[in-house]
Amino acid sequence: MNEREHLLSHHHFDDDREITFISSFKHTMCSSKFNWLLVFVPIALIFSHASPSVVFTLNFIAIMPLAKLLSFATEEIALRSGSVIGSLLNATFGNAVELILGMIALKEGLVRVVQASILGSILSNLLLVLGCCFLAGGIGCSEQSFNSTAAQTSTSLLGITSLSLLIPAAFSATTGRNDLEAENGIINLSHGTAIILLIVYALYLVFQLKTHTELFEDDEPEEEEPSTTLTFSVISLLVIALFIAVHAEYLVGAIEGVVDAWGLNETFVGLIILPIVGNAAEHVGAVTFAMKNKMNLCIGIAVSSSLQIGLLVSPVLVLTGWMIDVPMTFFFELFETVVLFASVLVVNYLIQDGKSNWLEGSLLLACYAIVAMAFYYHPVV
């Protein structure tokens, strides 16, 4: 009975619901100094009919604090559910931004932007987010450890993601991309592959949440207590996701104007710029956990997020394209597919020993910088 009273006092479950709501709201709004950027949310909505560059910039800035709040609400829920569910929730709601951006861009017919965004999300999580985690965590500790078995299981699944892109690229290279029969073959191949990847993702969830949970659990007990109620966290997730969807629509709508005005290509915008917005939530969350020496959570968020993009978000977008009659396929350009395959190999080599340090983080960030430069200078196909 005393333990129950102790939990109630820590979780702020007061009889007075108004005080509970207010305290939850205060904790949420004071959760980060980053939240002052929320002033750009109404500003972006007010200037929604300005020039494409202004609309893109304002909505880009507005989505970042919203992504941080999404991360905070998810972490609050995760404190009640353990590290396995926590990392899964963080990755899932972080990727909700990516899925919203992808669906809106697909509706606009921007297939190349969607494809680049998918690839960019996987690369930014594997190289940028994981690199920042290893670097930030390694500054405070000479060496950090994590469960190498769980990490390698995840990177093995990323190999299937790479395969799902390599096969359509090889298919196109051996049949000729201008052949109508070959194009139909790639579309049908992509639809079948999407269904198989969703089945693989469902099996991975069973593996992670039921049969091999111990591989993904954090060894250290959770010391933090939730500062908001579960109801408030769930409601805030839904409200924040709604605002993100609105800003994402304006952001995607301004892409074509920005491409012309800034002299960039759509692939670079989709591959480098959009993922920074889409992955802001898990990026902030993962680096925070790395500084707290919770490396299993970091690996879970960064790698699981890439897995969700490859095994859940991309198949859903391919099937969405099928439903709305937009030719969204797994056929990416050969250059992009090779970059992804090489990146997965590099990450696999670095995490196979189950230990990380600041130098490995620097190597991953160097890889990401090289990839970003390559796509910046690569001519539009």
How would you sum up this structure, described in words?
The protein has 381 residues and is mainly alpha-helical. It has a single domain, classed as A middle domain of Talin 1 (Up-down Bundle), CATH 1.20.1420.30. It is built from 16 helices and two strands. The chain is globular.
How would you summarize this macromolecular structure in one to three sentences?
By secondary structure, the protein is an all-alpha fold. It contains 16 helices and two strands. The protein has helices at 2-10, 17-29, 40-46, 52-78, 82-107, 111-140, 148-175, 180-211, 213-216, 230-253, 255-262, 266-278, 280-291, 295-323, 334-351, 358-377; strands spanning 144-145, 355-356.
Q: What attributes characterize this protein structure?
A:
381 residues, mainly alpha, A middle domain of Talin 1, two-stranded antiparallel ribbon, 16 helices, 2 strands, globular, disordered N terminus
Topology:
Layout (H helix, E strand, L loop, with lengths): L1 H9 L6 H13 L10 H7 L5 H27 L3 H26 L3 H30 L3 E2 L2 H28 L4 H32 L1 H4 L13 H24 L1 H8 L3 H13 L1 H12 L3 H29 L10 H18 L3 E2 L1 H20 L4
Antiparallel strand pairs: 1-2
Helix pairs in contact: 3-4, 4-5, 4-10, 4-13, 5-6, 5-10, 5-12, 5-13, 5-14, 6-12, 6-13, 6-14, 6-15, 6-16, 7-8, 7-14, 7-15, 8-14, 13-14, 15-16
